[in-house]
Structures are given as C-alpha cells and as structure tokens.
Amino acid sequence: MKFEVTILGSSSATPIFNRNPTSQALNINERLYLIDCGEGTQQQMLRFDIKASRIDYIFISHLHGDHYLGLVGLLSSLHLNGRTKPLHIFCPAPLKEIIDLQFKYSETTIQYPLEYTFIDPTQPTKLVDNQDIIIESIPLDHRIPCTGFLFRQKKRLRKLIKDKIETIDIPVEYYSRLKKGEDFTDSNGKLYKNDELTLDSERPKAYAYCSDTLFNEAYFNQISGVDLLYHEATFLHNMVDRAVETHHTTALQAAEVAARVKARKLVIGHFSARYKALTELLDEARSIFSETELAIEGKTFVI
Amino acid sequence: MKFEVTILGSSSATPIFNRNPTSQALNINERLYLIDCGEGTQQQMLRFDIKASRIDYIFISHLHGDHYLGLVGLLSSLHLNGRTKPLHIFCPAPLKEIIDLQFKYSETTIQYPLEYTFIDPTQPTKLVDNQDIIIESIPLDHRIPCTGFLFRQKKRLRKLIKDKIETIDIPVEYYSRLKKGEDFTDSNGKLYKNDELTLDSERPKAYAYCSDTLFNEAYFNQISGVDLLYHEATFLHNMVDRAVETHHTTALQAAEVAARVKARKLVIGHFSARYKALTELLDEARSIFSETELAIEGKTFVI
After folding, report:
1. Which of A12, A126, B137, B247 could form a disulfide linkage to B214, CB 3.0–4.6 angstroms apart?
2. What is the mean pLDDT of chain B?
3. What are the binding positions for Zn(2+) 1 in this chain (chains A, B) (predicted)?
C-alpha cells in the first residue's frame, strides 16, 4: 500500500526564492491528504504533478499565514474546476470565519460540500478513521493554538499464499476468513494452520507531522516509534534563545526528538529564510540522529 | 525618468504552471508601486529581483482572490523583515476587514503604519499626487466592485542647455526660473529667450491598468491616448458569450479598446487557464491592433 509524503514547501514565515511556505501532500493508498497549505501550494502541486482534484482531506495545523494562506485560492480553483465531491477540512475553528469572509466579498458560492472539523488543540483527538489509516491531532506548543498530525496505517489482512492455496480444495468464500487468520480443515479433516496458507501483511507504518512547536516532551509519547517524523527545525542551535522566544525548534532539538521517540527516520523543515544553504542544519541534526533528511520542495519520502 | 512595469502574474482565477495570478510592479523614478497582489506575488518578486521593501503604494483592483490573496503574506513578510516606514494600500473597503481578521487570529501586530484609502468604485478618483505621478482609479464593469488604475506622469521642468548657460553669467539661483520657462536678461540688458537656454522635458507618459472588466465604453474617455494600456483578455473572441457572462473581455475586444482610445501600445493579460499557449490570443488582438504584446511573467515594459 502506498504511503508517502511529498514536500511542497519547506520555508518558515518569510519565503525565499525556491523555498515555499509549508505544505505537504500525502499519498495513502492512492488517496491524497494535504497537510497545511501555505501560499503558492497550488503552483507547487502543478509543478510536482500532485492532482489537487484528488485531495479529500486537508489538515491545517495553525493560523499563521505561512501554513494556510494558499487555502482560499485552492478551494476556489477546485470550485472553478467543477468539483462536486465533498472536501473535508480539519482546522482551528476561526479558519472557517476567515474563509467565509473572503468568499462573501468575492461573492463566491462553493459548489461542492465543504465540511469542517474544528480541532481541539489541547488534546490528541482522532480525526479520521477509514480503511487505510487512523489520523490523530497532536497538541503542540506554539505561540498560538497549533496541532501536528499523526497518520497510523491500519494493520491489513494477511496475504494468501496462492501456490499453496491452489493445491488444496478451499472454497473461495473461505478466503476472507483465512486473511483474518483462521485455520482451515478440509473435508478429510486435515487441519491446515493459518501460517501455512497465508503470510503476515506488512507492518503498519506511522508518520508524524510536528510543525510548528517548541521542543516539549508533552507530545513525545504520542509519536513514539513512528517510521517517519517530520519535525520543524527553524534555526540552528546557536539560535536556541530565538527558537524559545518564537516557540520554534532547532535542528539539534528536532534530532533529539527523533532519538527520544525512537523514530526510524527524521525529515527536518520549516527553515528560517536566513539559511540560504541548508547543510549546517542537516549536519547539526545528523550529529545526534544520523537518519535525518532535509525537506526539499518536490522530494517524496516513502514511509 | 524611469517609468516601467514588470509583469509578476498573468493568469486569471485558476493558476497554471508558470503563470501566476495577477500582479504588476511599477517603477516610477525608482519608487515602486504594486498593482494587485495575487497568490505567490512575493515569490515572483524574489524571482525577478523586485525589492518588496521598496514598495510604498499597493493598489488592489477588486476582491476576487486572484487579485489579492498574496497580500497578507506580503504584509507579514515586510513586518518580519523589520519595515518601519508607512505602507499605503488603495483598495475596496472590505479588504481591511479581511486583513484585520487574519492578523487577529495569527496574533500579528504589524510594526509599520498601514494606511488605507478605500476606493469608491463608482467614479474616477485621484488617489496619489506626488512629484512624479498622478494616479487615478478607473471604474470598471465587473461582477463585483472593481477599479483599474491610471498613472499619468507629471510634466517635468525644462532642462538647462549646460554648454550655453556656461557662456552667460547667470546666477545659479536663477536656474530654477529658467527650468520653469522664464527668459533671462543679463546685466547689459541683453535678453535670452528661454528656448535658447533650455530644452523641453520629455512628454509625460501615461499607463492604464484595466483588469477585470467587461468591454464597456464607460472608461474609454478616461484612458484616452495612454502610452501603454494593460487590458485583460481572458478569452478568445469565440468565447465572447462566456466573457459577457463572467464580465471579462476577449482579446479582440481588448484590441478594440486600444484602438478606440488611441493607445500607443497594448499589453494583454489575465489569461484563462484553458489557453496553454498564448499565440492565438496575441494573433487575435494584433489582427486589429498591431502594437500588442503579451503579459509574460518577468517581462518589463518601458512606458
């Protein structure tokens, strides 16, 4: 099952040339989920061939402009392009007021159902639970209410060992029970243990998105053991005072989070515009968590 | 005196790859004026080396998102980059409400004076009158209140003919009177006619920005004889019904406007996303107004 994230924007509040404000597109079993939607996200989707029409869920972490200013334009384009299927937005409650006001003055009546779920930023909450994935909010510690998002794949059914199955007379109707782990006894009373007939499905993977936040142990437990951790790393650690003041994280701290929660891999992003090159940020994080990569526009990470 | 316009965005509501929503930067005697500010305008300024910090005036034609969704991000970046000098925004009144609401929820207090002038969309109004330029609003005919903008250079002072002046004993204090057109009589009573001593300054130029609008004679008189006319041309004329329905103009109609108002040059823009190539739009306009160019991102037109 496909489970991958494409970086659409990696800059913090002030954009720099070729670094866009935050946005990420997740492809989970060919369904698209958008996390944050900074200005220019539409153009980034065009650039990296992410079909906006295929997005059904949008998650907005908080109401700093670099995380949502591309949303009204995107919603409007989907409308103009004839969307009819519902779009679900998970966001801080005031975002609806902002969107409604802008549509009021542009005299726009969106022609598809826009469904909102307002996130309680104070506690982890299950937002989505479908056949593929469970998505929870992660309360973060920023200057204004802010949540990250945790995507946990569901355990899938076991896989039939086709070559083996074909040698036994098993009714097709029984296959779904095999996939769920049941044994099979044939008409002669011969027992086949389930693990002779099926293979375990892949280990369910998890992805945690943590931006923007102060380094704070409060969210560590929830993201324990994730396969991929995206964590903001706005500054180098020599600016840790500034990071604390603005409720951001340094590259070193992001790596410490990854190490502490035993993530398999770390991607850092949300870089301050002061860093034209990102090597120092990467080196700093790798000094304590070697499996670190940079969030670069257009890069796709398989989870 | 420099008087030129750089195209930052040329697309209509739905962006396409490499065509950004509407924005233009005017350089008038090394002062920058921004017209409209579609999403991504900041990135476009970075791309084309337009220094946002040098902008003192922003003009917003109307409240369709493709003309202003980049503004809050721009205002925020100027704030984060330490701007202290005032910024003047000329816009429809509700824009302030939209901006204030977004800054309220991002808990942003802009550290420079943000001065608003709300435009009356029903009649031409003088918005700016400084040493270089007079700027007026142009009432247009769109689905929601919308104005264009007319930039008329002021007539400059006459230029001293240095070689001639140096042969005569003229007090330096008298130079400013010569520049204004006065004659000079020397101590022997000899009269020098002004045109012996000075040259006329360049003819003042004018630029009209007309987007978005239905083809409508009401604004023709105001923009009569402009040196450069930017006019929206959302559709080819085979879609004139759609143009009328959505209160837009076809390429043919834009050219007709240019011909009727005796513009010296026409630039068409605000292209529908349906036109991947723009040749047909250009050819159609040139069929009746040969001095037509396309608004292409990054292109600068000297007025």
Report:
1. B247
2. 96
3. 62, 64, 142, 212
The CATH homologous superfamily for domain A3-156+205-302 is: Ribonuclease Z/Hydroxyacylglutathione hydrolase-like (3.60.15.10)
DSSP-assigned letters across all residues of A206-261: EEEEE-S----GGGTGGGTT-SEEEEE--B-GGGHHHHHHTT--BHHHHHHHHHHT
Residues in chain B: 303
Question: Each residue of A16-60: pLDDT tens digit?
Answer: 888 999 999 999 999 999 999 999 999 999 999 999 999 999 999
The closest of B33, B84, B31 to B57, measured between CA atoms, is B33
CA distance B98 to chain A (A): 7
Contact B81 A15 (CB under 8 A): no
Alpha carbon dihedral A235, A237, A243, A245, in 10-degree steps, equals -140
pLDDT at A169: 86
Where does CATH 3.60.15.10 sit in chain B? 3-156+202-302
φ, ψ for residue B190 (rounded to 5)?
-80, 130
Residues A66-91 pLDDT 10s: 999 999 999 999 999 999 999 999 99
Partners of residue B299 on adjacent β-strands: none
pLDDT of residue A166: 86
Active site residue A49: no
DSSP single-letter state for residue B204: P
pLDDT > 90: percent of chain A: 92
A39, A47, A101: residue with CB nearest B39: A39
Q: Do A101 and B105 touch (CB under 8 A)?
A: no
Query: Chain B partners of A94 at a C-beta cutoff of 8 Å?
Result: 105
Inter-chain contacts counted by CB atoms under 8 A, chains A and B: 101
Q: CATH assignment of B3-156+202-302, given 3.30.420.40, 3.20.20.10, 3.60.15.10, 3.30.70.3400?
A: 3.60.15.10
**Tokens 């400084």 sit at which residue?**
B130
pLDDT of residue A133: 96
Of the residues A36, A49, A56, A66, only one is catalytic, namely: A66
- Residues above pLDDT 70, as percent of chain B: 100
Other residues' Cβ atoms within 10 Å of the Cβ of residue A134: 16
Residue numbers in B near A81 (CB within 8 A): 14
**pLDDT class of A1 with cuts at 50, 70, 90:** confident
| Nearest-Cα residue of chain A relative to residue B70 | A39
A127 CA: distance to closest CA in chain B (Å)? 23
Rounded distance between C-alpha atoms, residue A53 and residue A223, angstroms? 30
Tell me the pLDDT of chain A averaged across its residues: 96
Instruction: Report CB contact under 8 Å: B77, A15.
Output: yes
> What are φ and ψ of residue A195, in 5° steps?
-75, -5
Are B108 and A144 in contact, with CB atoms under 8 Å apart?
no
- Per-residue pLDDT band for B234 (boundaries 50, 70, 90) equals very high
CA distance B64 to B52: 22
**CB-based contact B107 A14, cutoff 8 Å:** no
User: pLDDT for B23-38, tens place per residue?
Assistant: 999 999 999 999 999 9
Rounded Cα distance between A96 and A116, Å, is 8
